[in-house]
Specification:
Blueprint lengths: L19 H31 L3 H11 L7 H5 L1 H23 L3 H35 L6 H29 L1 H8 L4
Helix pairs in contact: 1-4, 4-5, 5-6
Length: 186
Amino acid sequence: METVGTVAGPDEPKEPARPRIITVIGRIWLVGGIFCLAIAVVDLIVWVALRPAMPTILGYAERKAPGIRVLVPYFEHYAAIKSIEAVLAATVIVFAYQFLKMRVWARAALEVASWFYLVYVLGLFGFSYYLQLLGTIQGVSESGPRAAGRLVGSLGVGVLIAGALIWMIVVLRGKKVRAAVATEPR
């Protein structure tokens, strides 16, 4: 049984070959979702192990960098934040898998996920820039060529991720993808 271009299992009906762009976007989201889920789970495991020591670690960090107080609410809700990230990543994995099966609803779901992650990435990079700026003003952040290199590197990664998400939104809204998933067997 040949299933090139499909994700149909041996007991499922054979699906039509899908356009390459659907395969590319579906696999990017599938790999990205698995990667984000793994990171969130590992972060939760490390958090559980380090949680008893967090008051000491945060106290030491605050003495070294008083601006760290800005992050206290984040660390107070770290487990909840990482749990939400894990659930969102698992949801995206399901969306990507169903998109690879060319389900109409999965195209719309991945478009919404693209918008959500675009806002998330832009917010995260904006917050990181704010923290770097705050640390520089307070004199606790490193300055000089190394700090500038890290800032440029972070900005570059942010631009790449945001660009990829914008590209996916444009393609997911495009006629080619809409037409391909509209032919879904009912």
